[in-house]
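Closing statement on the asparagine sub-project.
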Amino acid sequence: MADSSFDNLTSLARALSQPKLDLVEANDVFVSRNAQLHPCRRRKLSSCNSFESVEPVTSSSAEARVLVINTGGTIGMTLHDNVLAPKANAFVQSLRKLPILHDETYAQQTCLYDYYGSENTLVLPKPTYHSDQLFHGLSKENKRIVYTVLEYSPLLDSSNMTTDDWGRIGKDIEKNYENYDGFVILHGTDTMAYTASALSFMCEHLGKPIILTGSQVPIYEMRNDGRDNLLGALLIAGQFVIPEVCLYFYNKLYRGNRVTKVDAGSFNAFNSPNLAPLATAEVDITKLAINSLAFLQPPMEGVVLETYGSGNAPDNRPDLLEELKKATDSGVIIINCTQCLRGTVCTSYATGKVLMDSGLIAGGDMTPEAALSKLSYVLAKKDVDLDAKKKMMSQNLRGEMSCDLAGAKLCLSDSRFIQVIAKSLSISCKEELEAIRDALTPPLACAAAKIGDIEALEALKEMGSSLCLGDYDGRTPLHVAACEGHLKVVQYLLSHGATVYAKDRYGDTPLCNAVRFRHKEVVKLLRKTGAHFSRNELEEAGTELCSLAASGDVEGLEIWKLAGVDLNKRGYDGKTAIQVARAVGNKETVAFLVQLMSNKPKVTTVFHCFSISFMPNNHSFNLITILV
Ligand SMILES: NC(=O)C[C@H](N)C(=O)O
């Protein structure tokens, strides 16, 4: 991976109170939000010659939208002078000719290009029974997947990617976050695991899938893996709410910060040694070999040390240990990662304990890629002191390291409820106990959220359960806490990985729930964390506003406004709330609406989804393999 100065990418948090541009931007991919309104599409459709024969587009919610960011990599390369190099402006044309990746008939019949305002927009064929069955166990929305390709210039071999490129991808996702259901990043395989790890830390409070993929053989070749990889990534990004940065390759969906490239000559190029793939659809990282430790001097602030076995190094080299100790004493954060593909760092051996005694932090079963990205993310946290940074490095932040299973077991057996159930089912082995835990904890967490019991939520988390999982109706603890208006619980859940974009069986988000039950503070907090109404929810919004206006319910109108909904939205009969209030002669409501629409919003909603205050200048760290 190419070296670069770590530019100070200042926080991208920004106020959403300003209306976003509704215009198609220079590169033609940023689509007008208004253009998504179903009636517009209907009007455009009706002007199409072949409208009668079109499979009816009942609403815009029949389509899922995915943004594909093409950064380069082998998937779009061609041979020149016997070497592979990226080819600009050829990818979309080539996809257009592949029926498996684009349905031109549907595009023509539904005026897709006019409607989305971009020649770079394509649509997958209707999902078949077979592709429906591809991903077992994940909640799925059965939709047409419309995707728009944003091609970077220049396209890069990923060995040339720098941290600036990570920042660019993050910014583009942030810019387009509300307009798409998911994101696919096309990327070279050589440094894909680094970018995946970096994005996983950059994207705080992520609510939608970001899936990196690429290929080993260019998509232009007759026999290639690019088509399958792209198709799989699109199907997942468009159909499933997996709020994670993932990597999809060779029929497997991995957590992005768990993978490493293991094979330069096989389609099966990636492995996630310490975490099973999230779903199955069935060369070399330059390391700095050192023989001197001069590199531990300032301005070095962090080091990922790749050590032997379970985190061991020679304990008969006092010179080496002394240098490490001096460095950690002076504030350098050194993470101890194992060179082994599988297994975790622990202090079973004297040769491992000496490293911990020298102040190193155990990297558990993190990949070096994830450790390096996490280190850069943590080092960039300006308002966090050194001890807290060290603590963050030793804790699981985004699923990049496994929790202490021994601890989980102990807590599981401590939990009387689960213990009794496990006993009555004669369950004794760890795997079965964990399966019981995973089945039981979502409803338990929802029950705790309902009564505002943060301690109970904490206890469930300690047991190793995820607080993001939904119950049988897909309702997460965050949905429940939002309905109940438990602000502290909402705060707690948001800071422990809950996603604001979770949708229940009825397509409702926690924001929509908080609005329904009129919990203003919860609405404000959710908005601050990046929540927005889904397109489904927005379709009903105009009618809802009109009925609130008809009944003079100004409190109701205000809370919809707080939730970021445009009060000019039209109801089913084309009227706006203010027109309805005028029609029923409710002057107070009219005056209130006029004031509400002219006033600047009372809350400043700040988008925290992506705070890429990442890798500031002067932060210096390195990945080293220890050779002694
Ligand atoms: N298969 C690949 O994509 C390898 C290529 N050199 C890259 O990382 O861009």
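The first strand starts at residue 63 and ends at 72. With this model delivered, the sub-project is considered complete and its resources will be redirected to Aim 3.
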